[in-house]
Amino acid sequence: MSQLSYFEAIVMGAIQGITELFPISSLGHSVIIPALVGGQWAKDLNVSAPESPYLAFIVGLHVATALALLVFFWRDWVRIIGGFFTSIRYRRVQTGPERLAWLIILATIPVGIAGLVLEHIFRTLLGTPLPAAAFLAFNGVILFFGEWLRRRAVTREGEPALVAARAANAEFEHGDTVSDERISKMGFGRGVLIGSTQILALAAGISRSGVAMVSGMAAGLSHREAARFSFLLATPVIFAAGLLKLPDLFGPLGAGIGGQVLAGSAASFVAALISVAFLDRYFRTRTLTPFAIYCLLAGVVSFIILAVR
To answer: Which of 80, 192, 242, 251 has a Cα at 20 to 30 A from 100?
Structure first.
């Protein structure tokens, strides 16, 4: 049975922490990178192999990433959880935190159900290097499409839309409650639709944060609002997926790799915390275009390399 080395664990842990939040697909990179490196990496880090310890290792990485998101957005989650309990207590959905709490709950139901039903099928059939590379390139197309939609909306709405966007960015500098309030005003139907697009990320190569951002921008959110909403949506989804697979970590698949899991999880936590801090500022003024270019080029190049081997 293959084993993970500490070097493999730390490198892939750091990559997971970055790619889970950057709109470039963590699962895609977890599948493609070991295949490109080849040799022992391809043997040790095979996500589609039924007896691979890599599956248990990824569980630890997901929990670490979710913890990093909770740490960064802890103020938001205090407001959201408080809003949920006041909503239950007073049987209402009126305030921003109350609406945001139910928006997140409703938006995570479709991907939660799909994950339980389809995760094994997607992982075994599509969790191999060639499909992952193809989907990574397609992820770049999705990101380009999101930017096209955003530019079209600004062009259609004219200068007032630009002024409003700049004013919103200025307000963001004074506190994230403004951002949460804007997100919470989105209709529940749109929120569920945005959450449902995360189902696409069950295919290795499609980014959960990427598709959620694109659908959020299509619903009228700014880049930063869409990014923040995608991170808030991702937190319970990633956490639940990790906890659901936690028995694997303490079962036969996790035997003998406890130290590697801890090392990789620590690397993932630090990388995720740095990444979300960077992206929260990046999307104040910048776009998805660099990530779209990267995904398209990396996907095409990886596909060609893997196909001709």
So the answer is: 242
